[in-house]
Specification:
single chain; alpha/beta; 11 helices; 16% strand
Length: 406
């Protein structure tokens, strides 16, 4: 059984030097030289086809600019930390070429086509759900192994044996949230605000609502909005307040959530707000008053303020490389790279294998009964044949600008 490796303190010093030399922040690279978005291990060269001699080439896709960039940059940077560690071990070598999809479906497919044209052998991403669904259809047809750190809809993997998730699925989050709220008596009357134009938000809501009905959790009003560009939530909040909701469940991303918290304060409405993993990153938003998030509860597989050595080591390395606290998406990205590494090692994958050969080898390994990965976001993570990961969520509460595990 292959387990995630933690580097020794002696190696950490060498890693800091290699990170400073090897990590970049741009989006594009040429076919012959690594661009700012591409991390290449020392001692390798890139040939004219875009493949890196001696290294397995991983193509990453996510929003590096735009409204969802907090997610995309985090998954990219978490993956880069892991690749620096893996390459320093001296065995299998990886190179990551990260492309910007801006959270857009068409741009994600264009990014995928560029990556495979440049010789990518494994696809890492997409970060958000709708682009990932589109790219997954492409990788399934062409037989490229794909693993996503954070695209949580079941549509991502449904009917595709080559696509795997490191994040929780949407139904899992909705079911877990409803039970947690009920079991811990967090609210007697619950309002829901969700984005009915987004697969992630809708998928969680549907499972939450069904579970709430089963367990007797009273949902007094359900309010929607059509797009994450929505800026006025006074109607939705007003309906929740009018219905007497003492808890508002918001399976949405951090951008609209930040506006809801601000507008709720302005109108003097102070229920408990409860979110899911898409809310992670709200404390890092530029210009956001973190005091507005005080008391916010959310589900996440990773708490950067945890006291275990694995978390402290990762946080320290991330801060040294990027100057900030890693969120759950960075940890998911880190775990993706180690899951790929462990599976490649166990399956005997080498850099000279075709993408299709690697795909079949990794599918067999990920679904093997004796394969598991210990990561930042879960211990003993395993995968089913439908690509879904098995791991336990953690509920945290924002107190004093940090996460406190409940």
């Amino acid at each position: 059984m292959k387990k995630l490796r933690i580097l020794s303190l002696a190696l950490a010093g060498a890693l800091c030097v290699s990170m400073l030399a090897g990590c970049g922040n741009g989006d594009q690279g040429s076919a012959n030289t690594p661009g700012a978005g591409e991390t290449t291990p020392a001692g390798t060269e890139t040939n004219s086809t875009g493949n890196t001699d001696g290294a397995i080439k991983i193509g990453g896709i996510g929003p590096l600019t735009g409204s969802a960039a907090v997610y995309g940059m985090a998954t990219k940077q978490g993956a880069e930390i892991a690749i620096e560690e893996i390459n320093a071990l001296g065995g299998l070598q990886f190179v990551l070429d990260s492309q910007d999809d801006e959270g857009d479906t068409e741009k994600a497919v264009n990014a995928y086509n560029k990556l495979i044209g440049d010789g990518a052998q494994i696809i890492y991403g997409c970060t958000t759900t709708n682009p990932c669904v589109a790219v997954a259809a492409e990788t399934n047809a062409a037989r490229y192994f794909q693993i996503t750190p954070s695209a949580s809809s079941t549509d991502v993997t449904n009917g595709k044996d080559n696509v795997f998730q490191v994040c929780f699925t949407d139904p899992n989050q909705g079911i877990t949230a409803a039970n947690y709220i009920k079991d811990n008596n967090l609210g007697t009357k619950v309002a829901v605000i969700y984005n009915n134009g987004d697969a992630y938000s809708t998928g969680i809501y549907n499972a939450f609502q069904a579970t709430a009905e089963e367990i007797g959790l009273e949902v007094v009003t359900v309010q929607t909005f059509p797009d994450d560009s929505n800026t006025d939530f006074n109607v939705q909040l007003g309906e929740a307040q009018k219905a007497g909701a003492d808890l508002v469940f918001m399976p949405i991303y951090y951008t609209p959530a930040s506006l809801i918290l601000s507008q709720a304060k302005a109108m003097g409405y102070e229920p408990t707000f409860f979110g899911c993993d898409g809310m992670d990153g709200i404390l890092d938003m530029e210009g956001f008053d973190v005091s507005l998030a005080e008391g916010l509860m959310l589900m996440t597989p990773f708490n950067a303020w945890g006291e275990d050595e694995r978390t402290k080591t990762f946080v320290s390395e991330y801060e040294a490389a990027y100057g900030g606290i890693p969120n759950q998406f960075a940890a998911d990205g880190y775990d993706c790279m180690y899951a790929i590494y462990e599976a490649c090692t166990a399956a005997g994958v080498t850099a000279d294998m075709s993408a299709q050969e690697i795909c079949e080898a990794l599918i067999a390994q990920f679904t093997s009964a004796d394969f598991s990965v210990d990561g930042l976001t879960g211990t003993g993570m395993t995968w089913s044949t439908n690509g879904e990961v098995s791991k336990a969520p953690v509920v945290v509460k924002v107190e004093g600008g940090v996460y406190v595990t409940q």
